[in-house]
Amino acid sequence: MKTIQKLLAFVGLLSLCALFIYALQDAPTDENFETKLINDYNVYALQVPDNLDFAGEPLPLKNPDILERMDRELLVNTYWQSNGLLMFKRAKKYFPIIEPILAKYEVPDDFKYLAVIESGLTNAVSPAGARGVWQIMPTTGRENGLEVNKNVDERYNLEKATEVACKYLLNSKSKLGSWTLAAAAYNAGNAGVSRRLKEQGVTGYYDLLLGEETGRYLFRIVALKEILSNPTKYGFNFRDKDLYNNIPTYKVEVDTVVTDFSKFAQNFGINYKILKLHNPWLREPHLNNKSRKSYLIDIPEKGYYD
């Protein structure tokens, strides 16, 4: 009997030790981060939240078609893990630039997710000629005060491009009557959305029969909003130090010709590549500036590229 009691006590002690070790391994520390990364991969069906909205306008999720389309985008964007993690990383860097401009123009904050699906928060180039984070076409850019040519293309200037996007969205909201339709018009154009509404005799986006891209557009935006707002709910695990940070800069005013941006950059202790990273709207290694226009060039603060 004593032998059995001793054996049971020993087994109990081993169990406690195992639980203690497991608890240590489960703690969110850097030491076990890679182990959890490798061993925690599972694929689950997702439950579409009962209440989803875009810019305060609810999705009619009781409609089975709407529910299935929302489910599709949540699944696609949750399990495209590499892209998802990149969106979290870039959002930390660029949302702080975009958010105050949306607020300034009284455009709902949800529209920052439109930029995510338009470009992945990169200076993307489309086959149709759209450029930058907001994928602005040349005509739209020029009509809203941007300089667009081979030497300078301000569609690549995130602050200015965000302002143009705001103006376009406000105009669309005024014409179409809802933020949801304004978002759809960003993809298909005001005239295109208006024509389809009239042809089909409906008044809302979710009642429209649309092509593949525009038909998925709002659902993709809402899916990215839901996932980026709830990372752990959708299985994304990261630390703040894993995300990208925006490098602080100061602005230098230039109202003359610049013949060589490589030499210009050296005057500020950086190279041409670094200058271009912070000023992608400067498209050539020189600035023509025949009109002596005043430009503001971003220069990174010292110490970040040493």
Automatic annotation (TrEMBL):
Pfam families: SLT (PF01464). Keywords: Signal. Residues 1-23 form the signal peptide. Belongs to the transglycosylase Slt family. The keyword Signal applies. Gene3D superfamilies: 1.10.530.10. The lineage of its organism: Bacteria, Pseudomonadati, Bacteroidota, Flavobacteriia, Flavobacteriales. PANTHER family: MEMBRANE-BOUND LYTIC MUREIN TRANSGLYCOSYLASE C (PTHR37423:SF2), SOLUBLE LYTIC MUREIN TRANSGLYCOSYLASE-RELATED (PTHR37423). Residues 105-202 form the Transglycosylase SLT domain. The keyword Signal applies. It comes from Flaviramulus aquimarinus. This is Lytic transglycosylase domain-containing protein.
